[in-house]
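User: Aldose 1-epimerase, Pseudococcomyxa simplex:
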Amino acid sequence: MAGGQLRTSLLLTIATVCLSWSANAQADTDPYTAVVLRNANGVQADILPIGGTIHRLLVPDANGKADDIVLGFDDAKTYQRGNSPYFGGIVGRVANRIANGSFVVDGQRYTTDKNDRGNTLHGGFNPFFENNTWTIEEASNKEVRLSLLSPDGTQGFPGNLNVTATYTLSDDNTLQLVMEATTDKTTPVNLAQHSYFNLNGQARDTVLNHVVYINGLYVTPTDLNQIPNGELAAVKGSPFDFTHPHSIGERIGAVTFPPPFGGYDHNWALFGLGTDAASKTFDGVVSEEPKLAASVYSTLSGRAMDLSTNAPGLQFYSGNNLNGSLAGKGAYLYPQHGGFAMESQVWPDFVNKPSFPQSILSPGQLYRHIWSLKFYNHTAAPAPGVQTASIP
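Assistant: Predicted structure for Aldose 1-epimerase:
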């Protein structure tokens, strides 16, 4: 499909099989009661209507023992109390940063919430997508479809944005999220799933032992406030080169920017995209279907996951700002590097960088971003993205 072409929405009509009526009816009225997705292999995902949040994600290790691999809180209400550093939720309208909280669309300048050093981060103050209750449209033990209306003017963004988020758990151990949006007024859109992972499980180790592969040749350098300067930096020969697998902790000490903590918190240009990225993307994506963007495995547990997406960028964050002061599940104080996030998305500040991939949604168009995780057991050093042993 050519860039800028209108796309027709493929509406998801779900035959609800094996409905858990009691749980789902309760979740329909209670934002803090999860819809539980399960498969035949012991993988389980608990999805909260509040924020469209992945509250728990149980995945077996190399010995078949299932454990929760996402950071968060035992009490679901805590996600809405302003304590969460975006644990598990869907962020938007525009994930990542907008310089000076300002942009121009159709000749009109808009000003958005400045909640991050004079810039807009993940939409602004009181994150709308995370702090509101999504409506459960359909639910089963395999799939849940949620919807949310972001009214015109929310956090400064134009247009009424109608969003759906569909989580599906399959028996090949894939948890997929499809985020779709339509608008009645031209507006930027960049939705992202913001879970923090620790593939060790709740063993309370850091993620520095996790081995990472990223399918990207460039990162987007930033200023001190993490606003891209519009250039691309080749990763080859640097601590940002994950085209061959490396552990997170192996070279993190050499990543001293951004201050004050350093560590990984950068956007990778995926799939070989470079200076021609804007011409190779359409409607905020590079393809209709997802492609392998990253692989991660824990040397401790043997858990591994492949992240696939159709988005042009990946923000890899190594939990630098966690500092042992935030009490999470089991009252555990999450330490620095206690989790990592991999947010597939459009590049930061794209609204002010015409050379970057664009995601400006107009009436009649469909925004469709896919974020997909496939879990498996790592029993040997595989080629990136190649399974070595399926979860039994």
